[in-house]
From TrEMBL:
InterPro entries: Beta-barrel_TonB, Plug_dom, TonB-dep_rcpt-like, TonB_rcpt_bac. It is found in: Cell outer membrane. It is a multi-pass membrane protein. Belongs to the TonB-dependent receptor family. Residues 135-240 form the TonB-dependent receptor plug domain. This is TonB-dependent receptor. Residues 433-887 form the TonB-dependent receptor-like beta-barrel domain.
Length: 921
């Protein structure tokens, strides 16, 4: 067991929680009377995130997605019921509590604007209002994107929708947002849950969930928790992305929505279709009126696009020049299918049963035509010399799927509430028999070189672009499969104690989860084709058309069908690469048992949460060792067991109805990813020197102490100004290192693995501003301005041995940008909605190229992307929209050390979308 904070801190926190608990248990009992109701606008639209309070009792509730609030066992008396919602006039009612339950029905709010007779719940203002109300009334620091807000931007998946929020940015794949970073921390440091169940990750070596797999159409909202409370599972340092599904009870009436669109990308002259639909209905069931809800959502999208790439992969000799580079042309087709079915049964006001399900499949078909230039001697721009040119083809269809199922019940009896829930998630990634590389080569003694620095232009003799000049060298085929499953069951019990001077909520529970990650890979290497009696060895025998590559000349394309035909005519058995096919197979099993206790105290303008969580993990990793000297495989299994105490204190103080101060101390952990934990081990000998490469199943989890302090000010009508300071102290930072020269690897020339380092620090400032323009009496009142800026800095030490001497240097945390910013300008009337959005992130460390030399560190350059969206409401509930993605045609660029040393350049072009949406608002 490894406590990750000082013992005195733990004792103080536990004493605080216990004192709060006993203070509540000694409180006097009052009469038993419940009060409940629902908050809507004057059109009966449900309002989530509304604050409902009883000032005399210092009690406060926040309405859920269904607009409901509930007070249990209030003492008899006459009180004031106060309802506050951004964008609405405050509503006050006299509440007389006796000994019988009161059902207040719907409380309808009116707009705070004199010009608008109803609260805006749709469009840009309505989406922002929903998100800000939930953010304002949350106990901790959260950021929310509702499904309506996601629809205001041209974002096709969850990852791209989240990039608009304060403190969040995305890592892109082929120009599409894929992984989410929170407050500058890499995706593997953040958790993703679906209605409380941890989502499995489809990729073999990672825990990070690729959110481009999940269409945004299937969700009710996405909530990012930036502070951890004891009732939340560990597994994140930056934040937890909580995906919340839609429910029929989130609408006051039956609901449907249908969307159809067509997209066009500059790189490919093909149409990309998309259709999606949502339907929900509330039914009578088992003699109960309006007790059963069903919500169904489905989405299908196919996107056809491409990209043009030039990369060196860091092959620079800084004294002499470039050693190798590659030109790549991608043709890509991505297909997304998403399904969700959610059922709710509410037989009484205090009982609820639910089922939440999600299935999403992402198919990525990619053809990559490449030209690899291996220079005989390092060259500088403008020079020429000998080289080997390799025309290379990669073609594969990769399918990722994520599914989740959650069933549970929540029961309320007086001031007691309990929840029992079971969940499971499964993800897999399947890349069946595919062309890893089909290589044709030819040699040049002179005349090959390049010009430029960021964009390298190939110069070569005419034969370099003729098919008959290239001869088939080898074909590598692959077949990979990865699967992850997660199963869990949890129980929560809470008890609220109401006093005249405030309330105390005691909450405790436990959770048990099992996670299994399995990876399999098969590799075949076909070569020496002449010895196999194959005479068709020229590229002209496998050519098909000319590659459309605007950055240079690639000549004829390699036809993938011809390559498959060749390989299928051979017997695969004799071409298996036994080492690669076995060494990358592994399985990791994790069992996590957790329990927590916390107390939440509210009085007047104060709210304080204090508690502790304990998690114990058992892990078993199974893989293979390969001794290349003896050419022998052996099994490798490593078992580990470790426990962690995770305390937290989260507080907020209302300076006024509009201004809130927040502060928090929390602890978190992130377990090493599966690539790092893999028990694969390869031992080789090169020129009588021992070399090894291996994973490290003994790695400890990264742990962190988090500190947050900030202030928020909300405008009465609609808007917010906020500033949040944060600091994270990370222990056991993981990085890749060479252990040669130390311990059991003292006699090795190379021993590459992953190790735990010392401490790393991350600190920053998060600024957010949203303003709905009002008071001008003209077109300016239709403007909505939104801006956020996150400033971060980090440092971590990495170590290595040089001739037996331990050396170190300081680096930034990978994937951490110093500046992340969003700016959007919106304009909306009853008919027209326009929005221009800018998303920016500064350069960041992508990878440590050479532990011993900072000059080889790889950086992703600054990235600024503009997106435009427009909507025209031509009839009630019917909209025509037109979007432009990557309006400024921003490329991706990464460099080695300095910007003049290309690591990778890639351009994607613009994408335009035209669509129609029908909704029964």
């Amino acid at each position: 067991m490894k406590p990750i904070y000082h013992k005195n801190t733990r004792r103080t926190l536990l004493a605080s929680a216990i004192s709060l608990a006993f203070a509540g248990l000694t409180a006097p009992a009052f009469a038993d009377a419940d009060v409940q109701g629902r908050i809507t606008d004057n059109r009966s639209n449900l309002l989530s995130g509304a604050e409902v309070s009883i000032p005399e009792l210092k009690l406060r509730r926040t309405t859920a997605a269904d607009g409901r609030f509930y007070f249990s066992q209030l003492p008899a008396g006459t009180y004031t019921l106060l309802v506050n919602y951004l964008g609405a006039m405050p509503e006050t009612r006299v509440l007389v509590v006796a000994d019988t339950e009161q059902r207040l029905g719907d409380i309808k709010l009116l707009s705070a604007s004199e010009e608008i007779e109803h609260i805006e719940v749709v469009g840009q203002s309505g989406a922002v209002s929903k998100a800000l109300n939930r953010q304002r009334n949350a106990a901790g620091i959260i950021t929310v994107a509702s499904t309506d807000e996601m629809g205001q931007f041209p974002d096709s998946n969850v990852s791209e929708a989240l990039q608009r929020l304060a403190g969040l940015s995305v890592e892109r794949d082929q120009g599409e947002g894929r992984f989410v970073r929170v407050r500058g921390l890499a995706p593997d440091y953040n958790a993703v849950t679906y209605n409380g169940t941890q989502l499995a990750a489809p990729e073999a070596g990672r825990r990070a969930v690729a959110l481009d797999v999940i269409p945004s159409d299937l969700l009710e909202s996405v909530e990012v928790n930036k502070t951890l409370t004891p009732d939340m599972p560990a597994g994140s340092l930056g934040g937890t992305v909580e995906i919340k599904s839609l429910s029929a009870f989130d609408r006051s009436n039956d609901f449907y929505s249908f969307t159809a669109e067509a997209g066009y990308n500059e790189q490919q002259s093909k149409t990309s279709p998309k259709v999606s639909g949502v339907y929900s209905k509330i039914l009578d069931f088992a003699g109960e009126t309006d007790s059963f809800g069903i919500a169904i959502a489905a989405s299908f999208a196919e996107r056809k696009f491409g990209s043009d790439n030039i990369e060196t992969g860091g092959s620079w000799d800084f004294d002499e020049g470039l050693e190798e580079f590659e030109l790549r042309d991608y043709v890509i087709s991505r297909e997304r299918i998403g399904l969700a079915l959610n059922l709710d049964y509410r037989p009484g006001n205090n009982n609820e049963y639910y089922l939440r399900s999600l299935y999403s499949r992402f198919s990525d078909t990619e053809t990559r035509q490449g030209m690899i230039v291996e220079l005989a001697e390092p060259q500088i721009s403008g020079s020429s010399g000998g080289a080997e040119l390799i025309r290379s083809l990669k073609q594969r269809e990769e399918t990722q799927s994520i599914s989740a199922l959650v069933v549970g019940t929540q029961q309320t009896a007086g001031n007691w509430q309990w929840l029992l829930e079971a969940g499971t998630s499964r993800a897999d990634e399947d890349t069946p028999f595919n062309i890893g590389a089909a290589d044709f080569e030819q040699e040049f003694t002179d005349g090959v070189g390049f010009s430029g620095s960021k964009i390298l232009r190939l110069t070569a003799p005419a034969d370099a672009f003729l098919a008959n000049s290239y001869q088939l060298k080898e074909v590598e085929m692959g077949d990979t499969y990865a699967k992850e499953t997660e199963r869990n069951i949890k129980f929560d019990l809470s008890h609220e104690i109401i006093q005249r001077h405030g309330s105390l909520l005691l909450k405790g529970g436990g959770k048990f989860s099992q996670r299994e990650k399995r990876a399999e890979e098969d590799v075949w290497l076909f070569e020496d084709f002449e010895d196999l009696g194959i005479s068709a060895l020229s590229l002209s025998d496998y050519a098909g058309g000319i590659v459309d590559y605007p950055l240079s000349n690639l000549g004829p394309a390699i036809n993938s069908g011809s390559i498959y035909q060749l390989i299928n005519s051979l017997n695969r058995v004799g071409f298996v690469d036994e080492v690669e096919s076995q060494i990358n197979d592994y399985q990791v099993d994790e069992d996590i048992s957790a329990a927590y206790f916390m107390a939440q105290w509210e009085r007047s303008n104060w709210q304080l949460i204090s508690g502790v969580r304990y998690e114990h993990e058992k892990r078993e990793a199974t893989g293979s060792r390969y001794d290349a000297i003896e050419e022998v495989f052996s099994a490798n299994q490593v078992d580990n067991s470790e426990g962690y105490w995770l305390p937290a204190v989260v507080g907020r103080y209302n300076l006024s109805q509009q201004s809130i101060v927040r502060a928090a101390f929390s602890t978190g952990l992130v377990r090493p990813n599966f690539e790092q934990l893999s028990p694969a081990f390869i031992l080789e000998q090169d020129d009588d020197e021992l070399e090894a490469a291996f994973g490290n199943p003994d790695l400890k989890a990264l742990t962190t102490n988090n500190f947050d302090l900030g202030i928020e000010h909300y405008a009465d009508k609609l808007g917010v100004l906020s500033a949040m300071l944060f600091y994270k102290q990370i222990d056991d930072f993981i990085y890749e290192a060479d252990l040669a020269g130390r311990g059991e690897y003292a006699n090795f020339a190379k021993a590459e693995t992953f190790v735990n380092g010392g401490k790393a620090d991350l600190y920053g400032l998060e600024l957010n501003a949203i303003h709905k323009v009002a008071g001008f009496g003209n077109w300016l009142d239709n403007l909505l301005l939104s801006a956020n800026l996150t400033l971060t800095d980090s440092s971590a030490d990495i170590e290595w041995f040089d001739d037996g001497v331990l050396l170190s240097r300081e680096v930034a945390l990978p994937s951490q940008s110093d500046k992340t910013a969003n700016l959007s300008l919106g304009y909306q009337t009853d008919r027209i909605s326009l929005r221009l959005a800018a998303n920016y992130k500064s350069k960041y460390l992508a990878e440590v190229g050479d532990v011993t030399n900072a000059a080889y560190d790889v950086y992703s350059d600054d990235h600024l992307q503009l997106d435009f969206s427009s909507k025209w409401t031509f009839s009630r509930g019917m909209q025509l929209y037109f979007n432009v993605i990557n309006l400024n045609d921003e490329p991706y660029y990464a460099y080695t050390g300095l910007k003049s040393y290309n690591f990778q350049y890639e351009q994607y072009g613009r994408t335009v979308v035209l669509g129609v949406q029908i909704t029964n608002w």
